[in-house]
Every structure is written in C-alpha cells, then in structure tokens.
Input
Amino acid sequence: MSKKLIELNNISKSYGSHIVLDEFDLYIKENEFVTLLGPSGCGKTTTLRIIGGFETPDTGNVLFDGTDITNMPPNKRQLNTVFQKYALFTHMNIEDNIAFGLKIKGKSDKYIRDKIEYALRLVNLEGFGKRMPDSLSGGQQQRVAIARAIVNEPKVLLLDEPLGALDLKLRQDMQYELIRLKEELGITFVYVTHDQEEALTMSDTIVVMNQGYIQQIGTPEDIYNEPENAFVADFIGDSNIIDGIMLQDELVMFLGAKFACVDTGFGTNKPVDVVIRPEDVILTPPERGVINGVVTHLIFKGVHYEMEVKAGGYEWLVHSTTMFPVGAEVGIQVDPFNIQIMNKPASEDEEAVPLEE
Amino acid sequence: MKNRNNLKFMAGPYMVWAIGFILIPLFIMFYFGLTDKNGMTSLANVLSIATPEHSKALSLSISLAVAATVICLLLGYPLAAILAHMKNSSGVIIFVFILPMWMNFLLRTLAWQTLLEKTGVINTALSALHLPTINIINTSHAIVLGMVYNFLPFMVLPLYNSLTKIDENVINAAADLGANAFQTFFKIILPLTVPGIMSGITMVFVPSLTTFVISKLLGGSKILLIGNVIEEQFTQAANWHLGSGLSIILMVFIVINMLITAIFDRDREGSLL
Ligand SMILES: Nc1ncnc2c1ncn2[C@@H]1O[C@H](COP(=O)(O)OP(=O)(O)O)[C@@H](O)[C@H]1O
Ligand SMILES: [Mg+2]
Output
C-alpha cells in the first residue's frame, strides 16, 4: 500500500462544448480498493474509460507504474475491465468467454484449462462452463464478466457499476464476494458506483465526484464523518444541512439558537453550512432542548425510528431508537463534536469547485 | 379476450390476399406442374430438368447467382461496416443508399443496358479518351453486374442491422482482453453478424436465381437462365405444364436456401423487415 500505480495528471475531456472532466488529478496506489462515487453523469465512466484506454483525454496524461500510457491502445495495457452491462460474448459459451484473453496471449491448453477451472471456482460457477451467456441470470453473467477479466492476472481491475443491474439482496452478497476476491487476488480495484452505501462498504479510498470535479478523497470514515462540503454531506447519506453563522470559535448559531461545536478558525460572524447526521440529533423532553419542536412524521425502520421534527422553522430528520409520537413536543440537542461546520460555496453555481489539496 | 376477437376481422383483408394471391396460385402451379396436357398425373414436367438444355440453364443460373451473392457479400460487408460506424449521419446516408431502391427495377436495369452497349455511354466516353472499349453487354458478366447492382442493398441492410446491434462495449471487451483489430473482427464481429450474413445471402441469392428480366436485358437472347426458360414456357410456348414443373424445381432450391438461413437466424435478428 505504498507505490502509486496509476496517476491521472491534469486530465480534461470534453464532448463538444460539454466539459466532462476538468483538470482532473488522481493517483491510485498499488493494492488499493478505490471507488469513484458520484451522481449519474458526473464523469465516472469517462474516467474509467480513460484509464482503460477506450478514450483519449484532450489534455493531461495517464501514468501506469511510472510509464506514460496516455496513447497506448487498450489491448496493450496491463489492466482489465468489467463493463457496466457485462458485455459478454454471446456467441461463445462461458468457458470460451473466460478463455478469450488467454487464447489471444497464446497460453497452453493445459494452462487455459486450469485457469478456467480456477476462475469458475473463484466466482462460484463450477459446472457452468458449457452454458451460453444468455441462459444465465444477471448475477451469474456478472460473475462470468469478472472471471473473464481476472484470469488474465491484471495488475488493475476496472469495474464500472458492476452490481448496478442486480437486486438488493444479490448486490449485497456480491459486495462481499468482491471484497473476498480482492483480498485473495491482491490486485488493485478501481470501482465505479453511484451507490454511496456500496462505496462505504467496500472501499479503502473513496473519490467523491460531481460534474467532473473531485469533491473529496478519503477513507469511508473520513467521507462519512467529515464531509468537506455540503455536496459530499448531502450525497453521502441523509443529512440535515442548515444555514448558520459561526459566531466565534466553537460557537455556532442556527435556527435562532446557539450550539457549542468543536470547529475553530472560521473567524467571527461568518455564514456557514452546518451539517448534522440524523443519528446525531438527540431528542429530549422540551425543557432540556437547545431548541424545541414538534414531531410531524414517524416511520418505524427496524433498527431505528425515523422522525421528522419541525423546530426553528426547519424540518429536522432524526434517527433514534427512542420513539416520540407524532404531535409530541420535543427538545433537540446535538453533541458539539457531531456538528460539522463547512464553508459556504462562493456562489450558487460554484457548488462544484475543485478542491485544493 | 373480447377485444382480441373483435380485432380479428382486421386480418380479414390479408387472409383474402393470402388465399387469392399466394395459396391459389401455388395450388395451380403444383396442379399444372404435376399433370400433363391430358390432365393425367405425370412427373415428366419436373423431370425435364434433366434434359441438357434445362440443366444447363439451371446450373448457369446457380453459378451466376452464387457469383452475384459472393460479390455482394464482399462489397456489402465493408459498406455496411462503414455505414454502421457513422452513427450520427446514418439517417441521411441510409436514405441516399435506399433511394435507388424506390426507383423501378426495370428502369434501372435498362439504364445499365444503355450504359454498357457497344456504342453506349461508357464506350463512347472510353473511345473519346482513346482507351480500349469494354464488351460485356450480352455476356454473363453483364448479368452478374446487373444482379449485384440491383440486389446489393438487400445484402447491406441486414448486415447493417446486425452490425449496429453489437454493443460497443463487447468490442471494447475484446480489445481489453488483448485482441487486436484483426482478431476482434474474426473472433467477435464476424460470428456475431452471421445472422445478417445469412439473411443477406438469401435476399440476394433467391432473386438472382429466379430473375429473367436482368438476363433478358443485359444477356441478350444468347444466354438463357432457368428464369428465362420458365418465362418462355408461359409466354411463347404456352406450355404451362412444363413452366410449372420447372418452377417446382426452382422452389426446391429456394426452400433449401431459406431453411439454411432459418437455422442460422433463429431470432430473426438479421431480418430486413
Ligand atoms: N461519447 C459521448 N459523447 C457525448 N457525450 C458523452 C459521451 N460519453 C459521455 N458523455 C457525457 O459525459 C458526461 C459524463 O458521462 P459518464 O462519464 O458516462 O458519467 P457517469 O459514468 O458518471 O454517469 C455525461 O453528461 C454524458 O452525457
Ligand atoms: Mg457510468
């Protein structure tokens, strides 16, 4: 977990006048599980296609293990891709699909046979070798696509929303499968998804993207607990994002009440975004709250209750194991270290400012 | 259910059409083909294909149809690939390409006659340039040329259809797994377009095998294809029995061709319609 295996330097890419990636910088370390996370259309697939060699950037370069591969064709690159909709060869059976790359490389029959067997076992598809792709379920086809890629022993595996078309249960199973595979094979994974839960579950490093800009890079914990801006906070899980004013170090005012927090260095009387996770909102009897409100919605979610509380003119989203019925008067408290203070973007349409490192 | 019953009458006109213009003529053809002038059952008409004159016409028809089909495939595949590649402008290009198909078939073939004649447009131009003239009118070459010209679109369209159906990422996947352009074509693209190829072959081979107009206009009276022999029986010799008998033979070839196509094109993927 030390060497930089892939480096994207100053990559820009436009289609016509539409800028998809703008001065994009990213490095991926050996053996890392990196996830590109962002809403649809933010440029994740384009980034992956540039790494895979299916797209040439307008500016910038791609380094692989220190070598510039920006203009190297895909068939010469030491990486393999699992495409978004499987892209299996429908005229070949599963074995021939898996063997495709090895036959091209002229491996011996015995080597190929062993590899097919190994790969089918790895993805739990023993006995499916002679079946045709069309006769397999979506989840099985997905695993064939993974097997077809990994038999080539790439240094890097690129995966574009590989679980996107699967149902929830299968998706969760496959997440664990992929983590297991990654650990067994010890190769670098570059994974694309728009599903924040998937990203949090699987990744070593998450790259949050929006409109072609990197919003934040960090571990799942960093991204979840300390989002650097309102976009990240909003995109990663549900959040209460409230306009506030930083009165002084460690004291913020919003919705007409003063809250103690732990952030410093914002100056005095500075407008900020205040982010509070729903599970960090503490509901109390009215006399103990910093501000008071009324419960307007209540849903039982299994692990917790989800409530909406109208307080200080804002609909708070609250997750709590203690239930307050609709109509109940409640007080709201937040522990100082659970209040995230973030600078406001300079203007409305600058939500996607590139981050300085 | 109720609605469906109510809508059944919509198929009525087609049923009338199918019975009147497909089933009845087919029945008449078999009746004439399998009887003699006295109305007695006879295989003589069908078996007359064995006479040197008829079998020569049939084998010439088959060789010219095969030649035209092969040429159409070799010309049509790259053409279809180029068209499939130009995704954005495809509407216009396809339109330009199909446009001649809307013009009358006879007219287009007649135009070739004028072009190829000994003193036709091409030769006049060639001799004006002091180049050697070409003499292919009234030869099999001219007939094959006419077939290729007329039937090429029927090869290109199913090929175009099956080429555009290939997911771009399937081709990317082949490259991703190390295949070069050559390997990608022979291992991925070509096998995936087999339905289109088979469909195109049928669409060119069948009309080429049965044509009598192209051979008449471009082959003069010297070259007789099986289509011309059959036509003669109906128009000049007034021997419907023999014409029908030979038509049955021709139909056997067409049915065999269609069966082969159906095997390769189970999902009707490359189908033009
Ligand atoms: N070949 C292309 N031509 C034109 N626009 C494209 C092309 N590929 C992608 N785009 C545009 O680029 C943007 C980013 O696309 P993509 O990288 O696929 O996003 P994501 O994978 O994050 O959903 C989208 O707005 C998309 O419409
Ligand atoms: Mg995408």
Summary: The two ends of chain A are 20 Å apart (CA to CA). The helical segments of chain A are 44-52, 94-104, 109-122, 138-150, 168-185, 196-202, 220-225, 230-235.
